[in-house]
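User: Here's a protein and a ligand (copper (II) ion). What would the complex look like?
Assistant: Let me lay out the input and then the predicted complex.
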Amino acid sequence: MVVASVQLLDSTLREGEQTPGVNFSLKEKLEIATLVDQFGVDIIEAGHPAISPQIKRAVQRISRAGHQAQILAHCRAIRADIDVAIDCDVDWVGIFFCLRNEALEDRYRKDLGQALALITDVVEYAKAHGLKVRYTPEDTVRSPIDNVVKVALACKAAGVDRIGVADTVGVMTPLRMYQFVHLLRERTGLELNVHCHNDLGMAVANSLTAVEAGARLIDTTVNGLGERTGIAPLAETAMALALRYGMENRWEFPLLPQLSEVVARASRIPIPAQAPVVGRNAFTHNAGLHVSAVLIDPSHYESIPAELVGRTRDVALDKMAGRPTLTYRLDRLGVHVSEELFEEVFMRIKALRKSQLDDRQLLSLVTKLSGGLSILPKTAVGAPLGADEKTTAP
Ligand code: HCA
Ligand code: CU
């Protein structure tokens, strides 16, 4: 399926800052906003400015920074929150109010008619002040669809620009998400955004089927930060849209590793080695059979070109290695060894239990087993892992 155009919203500074223990400084927020803007997201959800003067200041600075992306402020369905957003010069407000019967009864103590009046009043107020407005019935997918449609249509009459479909607690599966978005589009004719939490690891899949069903924009965060297990990560969502849906885009993919590192540092949450696209292992092959096939033609075991994100393919050297792996790694370092020494090094590697050898460790093992002879070209010792990949890889 070809998807013509989908927008991306980055909510690292709003949803992402709701990750337990995460607290970005103003400087970090400005840096993150600049990078996601350079990456090419369409909307930056910069924060909920009514929460604190610090957040308000950050949202103000971001919306006055001249980014290409439009800036959105998160707001409760309260006029005072809209006033604070207006003070921040944002383009968009994202208003949220839950329409589940349980929430209406226990949390808000309002019936649906009262909730509708309150929400449409705030939508009209924001529109009257020249803002673009997204209204999200929080926990949309667990709310009665009739409640959602009724309020969405009232918001449409009040001039709302988009409705957010939130899977707030990550209960959806891809097919159910498709059906929900399809039905909501059919019954309202409104532009839809999608916001998927990752409680069962299906945030990206659910976001993509929402798009197949006609949603116009996907909410993401860098490294998938957010409440509990977070929401759809920016890197893999964008990559899936580009590679699997063939979507034309202006995204600066080579910025992704840096963006992930900056956010990992600022959030103090490391990037998992297994993370798609940005994780340490994303482009590293291990088993001897895999490596020998990749050395013939990478497409045997690769579906994403590492160069697309400015990374290089690598092969790990541990007990899984075959001889072609060791040959490749030694060649890459420009190290030539006798057959006998090769076998000795290889046997040591096969005996490794809980580790793998980086280039430096490989070089020192070879040096040690060769009786301390310096067989190493000086340049190779300090060369970063995979630095000469492009020239030596088949
Ligand atoms: C929240 C809940 C929210 C809102 C999404 C939105 C969700 O933290 O306030 O306003 O579009 O997951 O429902 O993030
Ligand atoms: Cu959320």
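Summary: Residues 13 and 384 are 33 Å apart (CA to CA).
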